[in-house]
């Protein structure tokens, strides 16, 4: 589980764009800005002095393009490209970029990219998915959401389920409920697959919080959540081999850990 700070470097030849990146990075608790610079030469000097986990890197810069700069590195950190030009997108992803942000960059879009990075384990291979295991060590420990003009940390192990409505989501945890502007489909891509499953176009549930289920409903903390017709096959495939039938016809999860 990721508990350490992600050490960042911001590189952009436009002062305003660089200032915005620094402000955004400073707003996220898990990010630590080790330095900022205006070109790749300065970036290389900083990389030789400090270990860096993540670079926010402009593409079109003087002296050397950001994409060409990455090719010169023997072992590149994680990269989030920032650019005003869509034409570099394919090249950026061919370099295994975590994300590709088009300027002007909104904070919501920046945060989505950062949440992708939070899913990355910098030191260990990916874990095998298991229904009855806690969220794996390669998963993020938390995500951040904008609520009432501030960033709120949500621990993934605290989430019971998520409900989507229009452009908003409601996140129900062990201790609180928060509502934020976010597409449920976008959040589904961000959440670790070994910890969460989409059961309905309006619901995502924590696998480890499922207490029982039948053909149409999943039960979590006395809350009944519908299983959508389009999602039944995936849900049943995941849960079928890890359940047993009770006297009332419900299927309960064997050895499910409530964490």
Describe this structure in words.
- This protein has 259 residues and is an alpha+beta fold.
- Helices cover 24% and strands 32% of the residues.
- It contains seven helices and 17 strands.
- It has helices at 15-26, 40-49, 66-72, 89-94, 107-118, 184-190, 232-239, and strands at residues 6-11, 31-37, 54-58, 78-83, 99-102, 142-147, 150-155, 159-165, 168-173, 177-181, 196-200, 203-206, 212-213, 217-220, 223-226, 243-245, 251-253.
- The strands form four sheets. Strands 2-1-3-4-5 form a five-stranded parallel beta sheet, with helices on both faces. The protein has a five-stranded antiparallel beta sheet with strand order 10-9-8-12-11. A five-stranded antiparallel beta sheet has the order 15-14-13-17-16, with no helix packed on it.
- Strand 4 (78-83), helix 4 and strand 5 (99-102) form a beta-alpha-beta unit.
- The radius of gyration is 21 Å and the shape is elongated.
- The two termini are 14 Å apart.
- 32% of the residues are buried.
- The model is unreliable at 123-138 (pLDDT under 50).
């Amino acid at each position: 589980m990721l508990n350490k700070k992600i050490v960042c470097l911001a590189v952009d030849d436009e002062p305003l764009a660089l200032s915005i990146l620094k402000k955004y990075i400073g707003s996220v608790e898990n990010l630590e800005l080790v330095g900022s610079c205006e070109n790749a030469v300065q970036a290389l000097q900083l990389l030789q002095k400090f270990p860096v986990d993540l670079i926010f890197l402009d593409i079109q810069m003087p002296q050397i393009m950001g994409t060409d700069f990455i090719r010169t590195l023997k072992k590149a950190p994680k990269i989030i490209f920032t650019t005003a030009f869509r034409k570099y997108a394919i090249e950026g992803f061919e370099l295994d970029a975590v994300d590709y942000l088009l300027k002007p960059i909104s904070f919501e879009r920046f945060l989505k990219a950062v949440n992708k990075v939070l899913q990355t384990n910098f030191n260990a291979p990916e874990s095998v998915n298991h229904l009855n295991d806690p969220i794996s060590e390669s998963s993020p420990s938390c995500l951040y959401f904008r609520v009432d003009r501030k960033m709120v940390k949500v621990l993934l192990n605290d989430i019971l389920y998520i409900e989507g409505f229009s452009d908003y989501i409601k996140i129900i945890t062990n201790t609180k409920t928060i509502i934020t502007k976010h597409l449920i489909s976008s959040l589904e891509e961000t959440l670790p697959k070994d910890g969460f499953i989409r059961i309905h176009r309006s619901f995502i549930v924590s696998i480890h919080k499922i207490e029982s289920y039948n053909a149409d409903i999943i039960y979590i903390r006395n809350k009944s959540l519908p299983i959508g017709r389009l999602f039944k096959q995936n849900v049943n495939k995941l849960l079928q081999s890890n359940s047993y039938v009770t006297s009332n016809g419900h299927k309960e999860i064997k050895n499910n850990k409530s964490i």
